[in-house]
Description:
Elements: E1 2-11, E2 14-24, E3 28-33, H1 40-47, E4 55-60, E5 63-65, H2 70-75, E6 78-81, H3 93-97, H4 113-127, H5 142-156, E7 160-164, H6 172-187, E8 191-195, H7 199-205, E9 208-213, E10 216-222, H8 228-236, E11 251-264, E12 268-277, E13 280-285, H9 291-298, E14 306-311, E15 314-316, H10 321-328, E16 330-333, H11 337-341, H12 348-353, H13 357-360, H14 370-383, H15 400-413, E17 418-422, H16 430-445, E18 450-454, H17 458-464, E19 467-472, E20 475-480, H18 490-501
Parallel strand pairs: 3-8, 3-9, 6-7, 7-8, 13-18, 13-19, 16-17, 17-18
Antiparallel strand pairs: 1-2, 1-4, 4-5, 9-10, 11-12, 11-14, 14-15, 19-20
Helix pairs in contact: 4-5
Amino acid sequence: MLELRSISKRFPGVIALEDVSLSFEPGRIHAVVGENGAGKSTLIKVVTGILQPDAGQVLFEGERLVFRDYRDSLARGIDVVNQEIQVVPESTVAENIMLDKLVSRGRTGIIDWRAVNRVARTYLDMVGLAAPAETVVKTLGAAQKQLVQIAKALAAEAQVLLLDEPTSSLTEHEAANLFDILRGLRDKGKTIIFVSHKVEEVFDLCDTVSVLRDGRLVGTRPISGLTPDGLVRMMIGREVAGAPLGRLEVEPGHEMLRAEHVLRRGKVDDVSFSLFRGEILGFYGLVGAGRTELARCLVGEDAIDSGSVYVRGERAQIRSVSDGLERYRLGYVTENRKEEGLLLAEPVRTNVTITIWSKLARWLTRAISRPRELAVTNGMIRSLDIRTTGPEQRTEDLSGGNQQKVSLSKWLAAECDILIIDEPTVGVDVGAKEQIHRIIWDLAKTGGKAIVLISSDLPEVVRLSSRILVFRDRRVVGEVRDVGDGARSYAQVSSAVGRYLH
């Protein structure tokens, strides 16, 4: 048994954990849930030795643990899959998985790379990642990197496995495969601690759930004695709507974006579609199906080999993300906000206004006008309800949901007419997810924006979209219409999507 006794941890001005006591038993999957800032990540870091508690004890099998760092945790058989992607980008998939267990030839010390790749392939097959073991990790997408992290943790064969939002970038199919693996580990007597914002996952997978709020333990309950609504109330202390948002007034005569036979070899295969004013067009499919790859072609991040892109009826030549913004008022909220979407070490002010610096510059000196910069930032903080101490707070100190709002705000500040939003609620809690959903909806409903929504969360796609394009094998294999008008239930839409995927 892993036991936490009266754990407290404080940071300047913040109580991250206060007098938290929990027990995690072998052969059980124990969920730890709560809103962003509730203390979940701090708890994981205390368990794995990354942070030292200010008070309290961590015990494992009755023995007090005092870890100096994460390596001590690994040595005792306690491992973690972090929400933030932590891989060696220049190394291969196999090297990342087998980093601490490279196979050598006898006593020579020479690495047997064929054996390393073969063993790594075993764990790649377990998580359902088809990429060759020799693939360099930096060429993979965020979801594929997440699968590499999970494969590495499985290869460690730890007695205690902590997973922090492991499905944040995975589709339902990939998440279901992971859950089968975790159930198998549970049946072998492993202790599994599962952190997730997705209430449905907790009920599908876990035996027990503990709820944190503002660094304090609200309670621990068996899943069998809870309802989803009851768990949400424990987490946030209030009700969350979650109901359909209504019908969008799409203007089919006002085409904003069109792709014709777009091809990028190995990434996108002959994709065509149109996007209209006031529409939210959902892109859904398995990881690697071509959704994000197509988005990168549309915004000029990757070049297309053939085909055409049209903006407002005119053929567009988009050479970069900044080119798409300046010439076509096209914005791109990337799925990987921490690595690509935000300057984490910079203040909120910088991230909100970075897309409009040229507009904020003084005519004579070209220096950015600080009053105008602050006015824009404060306006976005108010309109998007960004929970921050102010414009000067470092972006990395915000919760995941508020970071996502900042990532979205820079494109709104630039007054983009067309937005491509990739995985808008990855790693955010249920309260922030509801807020982000309403922001996206209002942008289309009242702002007339044309939005492409890419998400691995099918309920999210169904809730927000007017239409859904289903991707498989790098192409569009089907279209589901009349999604958001209330005429079809979630089950009906989900079934229609599923027919295209299988």
